[in-house]
């Protein structure tokens, strides 16, 4: 039996189909980081778009948000999914660089926000200039640490 809902051109419907494609279509480029890792879709959602749509609407869906799994290793199911901004979702990726400073662990993006400096500035301090976390976090915007003469090769 084919489900009729009149939503096949909606953004939410595309989110639903893409979620299933990542988990079940072995030809999907994203399958290796979803389905191949054993990530599945809640059975009621997998088989019925309207069940997924009802959950989405009652859990804060709007067109500016994306579907996010709270536990990146968990399945797409009601207890592990939420609607978040793109920025929030990017902080929940498995390839994020986590930095611990004074006992607090955050992604580099979260630290940049907390420190009030641009992400690319913090990234350059840590990756290009090889500053320690302490040095990178405590420089004022636009300031550079003084390099000892022994570090400069002539």
Structure write-up:
The protein is an alpha+beta fold. It has helices at 11-24, 43-47, 49-58, 86-90, 108-115, 119-128, 133-138, and strands at 66-69, 81-84, 98-101, 104-107. The strands form two sheets. A two-stranded antiparallel ribbon has the order 1-2. The chain is elongated and about 65 Å long.
Quick structural gist:
The chain has 154 residues and is of the alpha+beta class. The protein is 38% helix and 10% strand. It has a two-stranded antiparallel ribbon with strand order 1-2. A two-stranded antiparallel sheet has the order 3-4.
Characteristic terms for this protein:
about 150 residues, alpha+beta, two-stranded antiparallel sheet, 7 helices, about 10% strand, disordered C terminus
Any chance you could write out the topology, listing elements then pairs?
Blueprint: H1 11-24, H2 43-47, H3 49-58, E1 66-69, E2 81-84, H4 86-90, E3 98-101, E4 104-107, H5 108-115, H6 119-128, H7 133-138
Antiparallel strand pairs: 1-2, 3-4
Strand order of the largest sheet: 1-2
Number of helices: 7
**Low-confidence region ranges:** 147-154
Specify the overall morphology.
elongated
Using DSSP, what is the number of strands? 4
Distance between the termini: 76 Å
H/E topology pattern: HHHEEHEEHHH
Structural class: alpha+beta
Largest sheet: 2 strands, antiparallel
């Amino acid at each position: 039996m084919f489900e009729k809902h009149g939503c096949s051109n909606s953004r939410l419907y595309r989110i639903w189909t893409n979620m299933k494609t990542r988990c079940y279509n072995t030809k999907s480029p994203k399958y290796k980081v979803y389905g191949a890792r054993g990530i599945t879709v809640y059975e009621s959602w997998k088989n019925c778009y309207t069940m997924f749509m009802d959950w989405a609407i009652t859990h804060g869906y709007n067109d500016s948000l994306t579907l996010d799994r709270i536990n990146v290793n968990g399945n797409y199911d009601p207890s592990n999914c939420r609607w978040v901004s793109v920025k929030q979702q990017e902080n929940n990726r498995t390839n994020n660089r986590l930095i611990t400073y004074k006992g607090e662990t955050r992604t580099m993006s979260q630290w940049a926000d907390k420190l009030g400096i641009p992400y690319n500035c913090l990234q350059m301090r840590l990756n290009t200039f090889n500053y320690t976390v302490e040095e990178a976090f405590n420089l004022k915007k636009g300031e550079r640490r003084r390099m000892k003469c022994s570090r400069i090769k002539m």
